[in-house]
Amino acid sequence: MSYYLHTETDRTEMLAAIGAKSIEDLFADVPARVRFPKLDVPDPLSELETMRELLDLSESNAEAQHSPMFLGAGAYYHFSPSLVHQLILRGEFLTAYTPYQPEISQGTLQAVYEYQSMICALTGMEAANASHYDGATSMAEAVIMAYSHGREKRKKIVLSPAIHPQYREVVRTYTQGMGLSLVGDEDPENDLPDLVKRLDQDTALLIVQSPNFFGQIENLEGVAEQAHAVGALLCVAADPISLGLLKPPGLFGADIVVGEGQSLGIPLSYGGPYLGLFATRKEYVRKMAGRLVGEAHDKNGQRGFVLTLATREQHIKREKATSNICTNQGLMAMAATLYLSTLGKHGLRKVAELCWHKSHYAAQRIAELPGYEVDTSKPFFKEFVVRCPVSVAEINAHLFNEWDIIGGYDLSNDYANLPNHMLLCVTEMNTREEIEALVEALGEITTG
Amino acid sequence: MTEPLIYDLGRPGRTGVSLPDPDVPETAFPADLVRGELDLPEVDQLTVVRHFTRLSKLNYSIDQNMYPLGSCTMKYNPRINEDVARLPGFAASHPLQDPDTVQGNLALMYQLQEWLKEIGGFAAVSLQPAAGAHGELTGVLMMRAYHLARGDAKRDKILIPNSAHGTNPATTSMAGLKVIELPSDDRGNVDLTALRAACDDTVVGLMITNPNTLGLFEEHIEQVVEAIHGCGGLVYGDGANMNAMVGVARPGDLGVDVMHYNLHKTFSTPHGGGGPGSGPVGVSQRLADFLPAPVVGMVEEGEDDEPPRYGFIVPKDSIGRVKAFNGNFGMHVRAYTYIRVHGASGLRGNSENAVLNANYLLSKIRRHYHVPYDRVCKHEFVMEGVWPDAPGVHALDISKRLMDYGFHPPTNYFPLIVHEALMIEPTETETRETLDTFADVLLKIAEEAHTEPDLLTGAPHITPVARLDEVSAAKQLVLCCRPIPAWAEA
Question: Under CATH, what is the fold of the domain A82-339?
Answer without folding.
Answer: Aspartate Aminotransferase; domain 2 (3.40.640)
